Amino acid sequence: MKDVDNLKSVKQEWVCETGSDNQPLSNNQQPNCEYxxxxxxxxxxxxxxxxxxxxxxxxxxxxxxxxWKNGFTVNDDFRSYSDGAxxxxxxxxxxxxxxxxxxxxxxxxxxxxxxxxxxxxICLSTKPxxxxxxxxxxxxxxxxxxxxSKAKNIEVENKxxxxxxxxxxLEPITNIQIWLANGKRIVQKFNISHRxxxxxxxxxxxxGSQRSPPFSLATALPVLRLLDETLTLEEADLQNxxxxxxxxxxxxxxxxxxxx
Length: 260
Hints:
The model is unreliable at 1-15, 24-29, 47-54, 129-146, 148-161 and 251-260 (pLDDT under 50). The longest helix has 15 residues, at 33-47. This protein starts with 6 loop residues before the first helix and ends with a helix. 22% of the residues lie in helices and 22% in strands. The protein has helices at 7-14, 33-47, 84-94, 100-105, 196-207, 255-258; strands spanning 60-68, 72-74, 77-79, 110-118, 133-134, 146-150, 173-179, 185-191, 215-219, 225-226, 242-247. Residues 169-246 form the UBX domain.
């Protein structure tokens, strides 16, 4: 997996660049810009939908992110794609995680992040005005994806329910973050000598044979790619990686949530 702090390599692969006046460069100067916005929007949509009950909405804060052609805005606060902090911020959004910046601002509130695709439009206002606002509402199934996350760090919902994965303490161990097709996130330790097929076996045991339709595994960054189940985690460069479960026979990745 790419290190988001390696700004040079990350920018070449998935950052839209702008000129000194925040105007977009021509298409031949930044051929990957449209792909980056589409990819970020798609991955945020896959991992970020949740139905919130009225009792959970008392301390909810809404954050609106709009992806423009010449940059992006966070509640109307304009930011450049080429800025290092912006790259880390968007990297977290793409993985379905709450950026550390928002965690620091909202320590006790529940944060509802909505991402809107405006890559074909230019943001005319570039004033720095980040003013998060509170709000309520049931928006499951809206046109824009949403990421609902506690400001506190989220780990595993039911650690005691996880099937044990045999580990060799004499070999390197890595944490694999797994986003299930129903929107749940789990974190499990594996040896780097484990194969991708072992991760798939772990997911099947976790979900139960009757609840696990055919699926494949894929990574989200730096680009979406299906994983070869015969490779080891080391061979597939999956140390501390984020892996997505992709169902093969359903068009509703959040089927379980939408039934409630």
